[in-house]
Design a protein that fits this description.
Blueprint lengths: L4 E5 L4 H12 L3 E6 L2 H11 L8 E5 L12 H8 L4 E4 L2 E3 L9 H29 L2 E8 L10 H20 L5 E8 L1 E2 L2 H7 L5 H5 L3 E2 L1 H14 L3 E4 L4 H5 L1 H11 L16 E3 L1
Parallel strand pairs: 1-2, 1-4, 2-3, 4-6, 6-7, 7-10, 8-9
Antiparallel strand pairs: 5-11
């Protein structure tokens, strides 16, 4: 990965931060994209060891503004050269009963989880095709295969991103450009911990396999290097890919139910993967 330019959206915390450490530690040049500039600056300082040992570019932008979502690409490529790997990691999650959702607020979920990553892919793909090299990594979720109760918009968003990513990979065969689709299960991040608290059944919640952001980041780097088609993590969630109908039945009938507030609007804050 040495010298490869890797752009990571949602890089300020959680999985995105772990990805920055994984790729930066392997010698890649990294562009860090998220809203929280203070966190990005601190992360960039760690990656460069404070002495310019590595290369990092910070782009503090609100990616939910789809029309401006690509503005950072030009400055990033001016600073670090053409983007070789785009990791569409930024996302947002509500865990709320569908009857309590405010559809207007939830359009934010679709913007950040679907429209922005597709806009970024469309911006960078022609350049990658011209060079006959590059990788698009789309961070989807196991809920794209086995949707969870309480994630009405999130289920739809991650399924849309996954299907777009899977179809793109076939389209790119023979071009030198590759797409990796990541189906993340429960990974120990602040977003996941907060989301779990919005479910009722503590016993059911305790049975779910939990992975680490660092291990997922390592598997994603390996998938990029080996041009693997997809990553499913933690491993036990692969059963959803093997037996999707059974998995959907299990999540519909056995998964914990979200807490019903009965007020007609989503009161919990969105859980951001940044």
């Amino acid at each position: 990965m040495r010298g490869t330019h890797v752009a990571i959206t949602g890089a300020s915390s959680g999985i995105g931060e772990a990805l920055a450490h994984e790729f930066g530690g392997a010698g890649a040049k990294v562009t860090l994209v998220a809203r929280r500039k203070d966190r990005l600056d601190a992360l960039a300082q760690k990656l460069t060891n404070g002495h310019g040992a590595g290369k990092a570019f910070v782009a503090a932008v609100d990616l939910s503004n789809v029309e401006r979502a690509t503005d950072w690409i030009g400055p990033a490529e001016t600073a670090l050269g053409p983007i070789d790997v785009l990791i569409n990691n930024a996302g947002v999650q509500y865990v709320t009963a569908a009857a309590d959702l405010d559809p207007v607020r939830c359009e934010y979920v679709l913007a950040l989880n679907v429209r922005t990553p597709m806009r970024l892919t469309c911006a960078l793909l022609p350049r990658m095709l011209a060079r006959r090299s590059g990788t698009i990594v789309d961070m989807s979720s196991v809920v794209a295969i086995a949707p969870m109760p309480g994630m009405f918009y999130y289920n739809a968003a991650k399924a849309a991103l996954a299907n777009g990513s899977e179809g793109l990979r076939g389209e790119l065969l023979g071009t030198g450009v590759h797409a990796v689709t990541v189906y993340a299960g429960l990974v120990d991040t602040e977003m996941a911990r907060t989301g779990i608290r919005d479910y009722e059944d503590a016993i059911a919640k305790s049975l779910a396999p939990v992975g680490t952001a660092a291990e997922l980041a390592r598997l994603i780097r390996r998938a990029v290097e080996r041009r693997q088609p997809r990553v499913i993590y933690p491993g036990p969630y692969s059963i959803a890919d093997w037996f999707p109908r059974l998995s959907r039945w299990c999540t519909a009938h056995l998964a914990p139910a979200p807490k019903l507030r009965g007020n007609g609007s989503a009161t919990s804050a969105p859980r951001e993967e940044r």
